[in-house]
């Protein structure tokens, strides 16, 4: 799949569950909101109706987005890590230390759908993401950022 979204199994399962929730319960809930707002009278000046329709549009956009991702997704094998791959791969959480800093920062190299609560997502196509792919613990990598050239040392890969 040339344009496949690479996801971990956990992210695929989470997105599938979100899609199922939106296409069932979500659509029922929004239909009820729209129906309730319609009963309030003149639709041209009905703020509740317009808000519900806007919410419906956003939800349908999210459903379409999730459907595209899941239709064109490829599960990243966690076996690659178990088979001795020690460098940064898609889905890796990487702790890096910027030159001149004392405290490492954690990043997940992947797509936004892989996000975790406590980790910033870095796209593998970004300058930093490209530099980190394949790097191992202890490696120093350089990349261009909007603030200028940056150098980070990989502290940990998980």
Word description of this protein:
This protein is of the alpha/beta class and 158 residues long. It has two domains: 5-75, Helix Hairpins (Orthogonal Bundle), CATH 1.10.287; 79-157, Roll (Chitinase A, domain 3), CATH 3.10.50. Helix content is 41%, strand content 23%. The chain is built from four helices and seven strands. It has helices spanning 9-38, 47-71, 79-82, 127-132, and strands spanning 5-7, 73-75, 93-98, 105-109, 120-122, 140-145, 148-157. Strands 5-4-3-7-6 form a five-stranded mixed sheet. A two-stranded parallel sheet has the order 1-2. A hairpin with a 2-residue loop joins strand 6 (140-145) and strand 7 (148-157). Helix 1 runs antiparallel to helix 2.
Question: What's the average pLDDT?
Answer: 86
Strand order of the largest sheet: 5-4-3-7-6
- What does the radius of gyration come to? 21 Å
Oligomer: single chain
CATH topology of the largest domain: Chitinase A, domain 3
Number of helices: 4
Largest sheet: 5 strands, mixed
> What is the CATH-assigned architecture of the largest domain?
Roll
E-strand count: 7
Shape: elongated
Strand residues, percent: 15-25%
First and last CA, distance: 26 Å
Compute the number of structural domains.
Answer: 2
CATH H-level name of the largest domain... which superfamily? Transcription elongation factor, GreA/GreB, C-terminal domain
């Amino acid at each position: 799949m040339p344009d496949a979204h690479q996801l971990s199994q956990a992210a695929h399962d989470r997105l599938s569950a979100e899609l199922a929730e939106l296409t069932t319960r979500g659509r029922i809930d929004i239909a009820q909101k729209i129906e309730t707002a319609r009963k309030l009278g003149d639709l041209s000046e009905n703020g509740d109706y317009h808000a519900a329709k806007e919410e419906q549009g956003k939800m349908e956009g999210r459903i379409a987005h999730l459907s595209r991702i899941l239709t064109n997704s490829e599960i990243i094998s966690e076996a690659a890590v178990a088979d001795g791959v020690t460098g940064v791969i898609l889905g890796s959480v990487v702790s890096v230390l910027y030159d001149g800093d004392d405290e490492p920062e954690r990043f997940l190299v992947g797509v936004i759908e892989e996000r975790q609560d406590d980790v910033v997502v870095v796209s593998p196509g970004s300058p930093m993401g490209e530099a980190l792919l394949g790097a191992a613990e202890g490696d120093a990598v350089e990349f261009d950022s909007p603030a200028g050239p940056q150098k980070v040392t990989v502290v940990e890969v998980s």
